[in-house]
Amino acid sequence: MARLASVCYLTGGLVGFLTAWLVPAWDERAAALVVSTVALLAGVAIALFGARLSVRAFYLAIFPTLGLLAVQMGMQRGHAEAVAAALLLPLVSMFLHAFYDHRSCLIADTAVLVLLVVAWVAWRALPVAIVGTLVCVNAVVASVTGWLVHTAAEAETDLLTGLPNRRGLNRVLRSALAGDADHRLVLVLLDAGPLRSPAARDGTAAEDGLLRTLAAGWSAEAGSGTVLARYGDTTFAVLVRGGVPAATATLERLRAVAGGAVPAGTARWEPGDDHATLVNRAESALSEARRAGGSATVHHEDTSGIAAGFEAALDAGEFSVAYQPIVAAADGRVTGAEALVRWSSRARGPIPPDEFIPDAERCGFIRTLDRWVLRTACRTAASWPAGVPSKITVNVSGRELDQPDYYDDVVAALAESGLAAERLVLEVTESTLDADSVAALEVLRRLRTLGIRIAIDDFGTGYSSLSRLHRLPADILKIDRSFVAALGAGEEDAPIVAAITGLARTLGLRTVAEGVEDQHQADVLRRYGCDEFQGWLYGRAGEPERIAAALAPGAGERLSGPSLRSPASSGPSRGRS
Ligand code: C2E
Ligand code: CA
Ligand code: CA
């Protein structure tokens, strides 16, 4: 508002100034210059301090503005400068219809009309043709501005619930943070998904009805001063002022209205946060709450210090990527490698991923790290021998998949490195993947349509149910190394491995057994029809050149474990290719 008002005043002042300056001297020229100067000064003042004025103050300022224009027209009657002043009236109409409701517009529009009629009839300052034209132009400017603003507002409104949608929320957030940001601003994200399940059985109409009723109930309960928005399919956002205690109290009231399990994530505004950071933190808190299940509330803590430490380590080149070979079960030939990140901290020495990945996930650095690993691994794999088919497997934290730009990042990594999509496998751990997140599953689906394959890591250790597996867009199951480790010497039966490979066959998925450390394990796994192996028997994670050398034509022996030399002697292979 302030910007537009300032532009209008400056335009008016400048026009008045130039016309008074350029035309030959006439009696009221000095007065005209004074009026124009007032308009110019008003424009500058509004540009500087306008953000502090209320919407009402801007409205009231319209009337003195019309007064200034009336003075110009009245003084310069008989001159073309009166017409010049009148031609500024459409700016007033535009401003009005951009920001005010019908009633306020009607009052001010009437004032504009009265002014035109007085200038025409009483002062004879304007010819009838100009008055007629201005009335029409004003009407067009008013309707077009009103329509554009209405359309823009609709784009920010969720049509089902009438609440602001994600776009609307972003705008509210941006303007809340643009002023002097409230230190006690808390963004709460609630997932109404668990409430929906019974309604979903009754069809879309029932589901829509449920969301509408919920939105109405929550709107009434949220109270003034809070903003409620429909953030996603079943996700609602509440912007609360008054810090975490106020947010918790609001949450309790909303949950009472919902009458069912509603997981929630909250993030408090921290100095330096822009709206995107705040939303990201609330989102990761919600993902965690969803994973915890029921009506869990997760408050996002301030982990910026931890993140800054990681960033510095990445900049200092303390992270590297090691490559562990993956081999075909049938003949021990290297088919690719898994990229595993390594951190050699200058201060603390080598730190195993199992130790630092959870921290990186907690503070959000995992996104930066995993994208760096992805780009590095794609570049490396693109340089491996071209004649031999090989794939590169990269770990993805489930937390990244909710990120709207993840898909674009993967596409960019492929384009940058020149790696074919079919050579990339993304490994998602079942337990970090929010299988109820529509956005995450959608990203996986879109990535698969490019030709990228998806592997479910540590399969069997998460809280997978068959229905979840059915929904996951996957190509490969990685049998967790705990099941492989259970295959001790002399142990011939592995019912869990049998169940997983059987399941994979039924669903048309390939299997990779992890943590294969000895020949006996390899033999048993091969008998159960595992397609590929990964483990110390075939090589630890190391330099990428070792993989490149093993892939070079005629290099089959280099990484071989005992099974490579006599694949046939270890029992029939039922591995599919
Ligand atoms: P993971 O994805 O299941 O990776 C396999 C882990 O098993 C690796 O541990 C690997 O070194 C280890 N391993 C491989 N063969 C054997 C074997 O024969 N016996 C035994 N006992 N272990 C074996 P590492 O490298 O310590 O990684 C641990 C976990 O950290 C990974 O488990 C993965 O979940 C995570 N991780 C590693 N790199 C990344 C990454 O770039 N991004 C993300 N998000 N997570 C990563
Ligand atoms: Ca993995
Ligand atoms: Ca694994």
From TrEMBL:
<dbReference type="InterPro" id="IPR035919">
    <property type="entry name" value="EAL_sf"/>
</dbReference>
<feature type="region of interest" description="Disordered">
    <location>
        <begin position="554"/>
        <end position="577"/>
    </location>
</feature>
<feature type="transmembrane region" description="Helical">
    <location>
        <begin position="82"/>
        <end position="99"/>
    </location>
</feature>
<feature type="compositionally biased region" description="Low complexity">
    <location>
        <begin position="558"/>
        <end position="577"/>
    </location>
</feature>
<dbReference type="InterPro" id="IPR043128">
    <property type="entry name" value="Rev_trsase/Diguanyl_cyclase"/>
</dbReference>
<keyword id="KW-1133">Transmembrane helix</keyword>
<dbReference type="InterPro" id="IPR000160">
    <property type="entry name" value="GGDEF_dom"/>
</dbReference>
<feature type="domain" description="GGDEF">
    <location>
        <begin position="183"/>
        <end position="302"/>
    </location>
</feature>
<dbReference type="InterPro" id="IPR001633">
    <property type="entry name" value="EAL_dom"/>
</dbReference>
<dbReference type="Pfam" id="PF00990">
    <property type="entry name" value="GGDEF"/>
</dbReference>
<keyword id="KW-0472">Membrane</keyword>
<feature type="domain" description="EAL">
    <location>
        <begin position="303"/>
        <end position="555"/>
    </location>
</feature>
<dbReference type="InterPro" id="IPR029787">
    <property type="entry name" value="Nucleotide_cyclase"/>
</dbReference>
<dbReference type="Pfam" id="PF00563">
    <property type="entry name" value="EAL"/>
</dbReference>
<feature type="transmembrane region" description="Helical">
    <location>
        <begin position="57"/>
        <end position="76"/>
    </location>
</feature>
<feature type="transmembrane region" description="Helical">
    <location>
        <begin position="30"/>
        <end position="50"/>
    </location>
</feature>
<keyword id="KW-0812">Transmembrane</keyword>
<protein>
    <recommendedName>
        <fullName>Diguanylate cyclase/phosphodiesterase</fullName>
    </recommendedName>
</protein>
<dbReference type="InterPro" id="IPR050706">
    <property type="entry name" value="Cyclic-di-GMP_PDE-like"/>
</dbReference>
